[in-house]
Amino acid sequence: MKKGIFTLGISLLFICLIALGLIFYPVFLAEVNYFFKGKSQQVNIVAKNDEFDIIIPKIDIKAKVLPNIDPFDKQEYLEALKKGVAQAKGSANPGQKGNIFIFAHSTDIPANFNQYNAVFYLLYKLQPGDEVFLTYQGNQYRYVVESISIAGKKEVDYLRSENSDPTLTLMTCWPPGTALKRLLVKGRLTENVT
Question: 49 lies in which domain range?
Answer without folding.
Answer: 2-192
